[in-house]
Structures are given as structure tokens and as C-alpha cells.
Model the fold of this input.
Amino acid sequence: MQTQDPAAAYDRAVELATRGRRQILGITGAPAAGKSTYAEQLAAKLTADGHQVALVPMDGYHLAQSVLEDLGLADVKGAPHTFDGYGFVALLKRLKESPDEQIWAPRFDRSIEDSIAASIGVAPSVTLVLTEGNYLLLDESPWTAVRALLDQCWYVEVPEGLRHARLEARHRAFGRSAEEAHERTYGSDERNAQLIAATAPAADAIIHP
Done:
């Protein structure tokens, strides 16, 4: 597994986007590692350079907040079993196997802490789909099926101190108290982070954005 600098990563993404058939590039990493920001910036640069790209995050498959509350899972939101993993796999299969279809994917809206159905369009002209999320390399069902559908998967990594600070700040920004933010960052979020970190060796490259 190699460490890939941003310039080399961009060149690799261009190569994927110009292969002539649709490719799917996964971006994974622990919570607050910066994978969403990196994926958004990569998609924007590729688009600006004339490539047909779509960004379809895994977070659209969060179970609804009301469902998590009914199941008693709200406190561990973000753990693997709080997503519709089978739905995400089905979307990736459709993106891969039916490139001539207009496909609509869900989007997670942090301002309401819920997903909005059919809000990301993937046109037949799209040659590269970027998808980002925590569990793209997780070796347990149903997530195991994800890796086989990705042409490349990169693991985003930053120093742990920075990641924790970002995570606490994120929780505070969405209304949690300092104590709640700290507890969530070093509690359920940290358990998820350790699970995700164990998947890094399965990545094609490590990215330090």
C-alpha cells in the first residue's frame, strides 16, 4: 500500500475518469479525517477540468433519525448497523452495471440529521463516480460486497489530535454541549474510528490531504 500525494492522486483520478467505461472510486477514513472535504474538492477539480464526475456519499444511507430512536440506536449513530448497508451496495451495483440509466441517490443533510431521497443525480454521461464513507473496506456483511464494486479505494489519514479536535468542534456546531461532544468523540465515535482504522491495509493508497 502506497502513500499518494494529492497531485499523484489527482492524476490517478483522471486516469480512472478517462478509461472509457464508468469507474467507481472510494474515499474512506475515520470520522473527521477529512474524507468528505477531500472528495468534494477532488470532484470539483475534476469537473472544472471537464470530466464527467458525480459524488455519491455513503451517508445517504443513514437510517432515519426516527428509526434510530425507535430502535434505541440514536446514541451510536454512525456505527455500521445504523446504515442501510444493503441499500448502499445495491446502489453501487446499479451505478456499475447500468451506466446508461439516469440514477438518483439519497443525500444526508447534517442540518436536519437525516437523509433526503433521490437528491443526487448520476447521469449516463458520468464516467467517474466518487463515493466516500466510513465502511467502504469493512470486512463484514453487507459491507464486504462494497470493495468488489470499487475500482480504487483510498484511505484518508490525518494526525489523531487534529481528527479529535475536528470531531468535537463538529458536535458542538450541531448543538451538543462541550461535555456531550467530548463524550461522543471519545466514546462511540472512537470505537467506530478504531474499526475503520483496521481496514486501512485493504486500501489501494493512503492520502494525507
